[in-house]
């Protein structure tokens, strides 16, 4: 297993033309958030924008539109019909598929909440969206009971599970996964033809051939709710800008961890927040490209 280097990430980062515009540097569609979990949407969108994507459109439940639009004024929002629990309704599937045709990548899952409508939504979008999809959090949980949809999907897919979510995907125990991280990531990525980001200490990224990279950046201060939402937004952002999914995942994971390391120096491992990680993404990028 290879270790990600600064030089590798520098070579992957999408190049910007002098005459770039908001569409030429990538369009990202995010399907995120639910009542009670608006913060996950905010953090994922901000992580994506700080990573350089030019245009972000977000589908969200009507009840949290005000929170998201105030938290991320740079994004464009499409308020959706919602369930009684405040989650995106399955009735929105057709509209979301149409919106995806304008996107270079799709982020699906952060803060969605798990219910029958979420499972229906996730499986339908994996079937019909003809763009790379980054599947995180409840997007992963929703597909765990319908795992074969990953084998049927013909377009690139990135999954970003922590060990608990990986256990639900595979049926393996969290303890086994913790002791066999490379093996678990590699075998799953090969079997289902996906890029797999197994989060945790020394995050492992595996491609559909089973090739793995290990991430050297990051620290225990990043073990806080919301950190993974930032990462998912970053990965989706780099893919929207033109990185192939495996390399977009490598770049996102490394820079996410590096931003966390920069935060640690200022705030310590005890006081680091996901919003701090977002605000230090520019510093992490500068450290890599300079």
Description:
This protein has 290 residues and is α/β, with parallel strands linked by helices. The protein is built from 13 helices and 10 strands. A 10-stranded mixed beta sheet has the order 1-10-9-8-7-6-5-2-3-4, sandwiched between helices. It starts with a strand and ends with a helix. The model has no long low-confidence stretch (mean pLDDT 97).
Structure, briefly:
The chain has 13 helices and 10 strands. The chain has 290 residues and is α/β, with parallel strands linked by helices.
Helix-strand sequence: EHEHEHEHEHEHHEHHHEEEHHH
- Annotation, overall tally of beta strands: 10
Rg, Å, rounded = 17 Å
Tertiary shape: globular
Largest sheet: 10 strands, mixed
Strand arrangement, largest sheet? Answer: 1-10-9-8-7-6-5-2-3-4
Task: Supply database-style keywords.
single chain; 290 residues; alpha/beta; 48% helix; 13% strand
Break the fold down into its secondary structure elements and pairings.
Layout: E1 2-3, H1 6-12, E2 27-31, H2 38-50, E3 55-61, H3 65-71, E4 76-80, H4 93-100, E5 105-108, H5 116-128, E6 133-135, H6 138-144, H7 148-152, E7 157-159, H8 163-170, H9 174-179, H10 181-192, E8 195-198, E9 204-206, E10 212-214, H11 227-240, H12 245-267, H13 274-289
Parallel strand pairs: 1-10, 2-3, 2-5, 3-4, 5-6, 6-7, 7-8
Antiparallel strand pairs: 8-9, 9-10
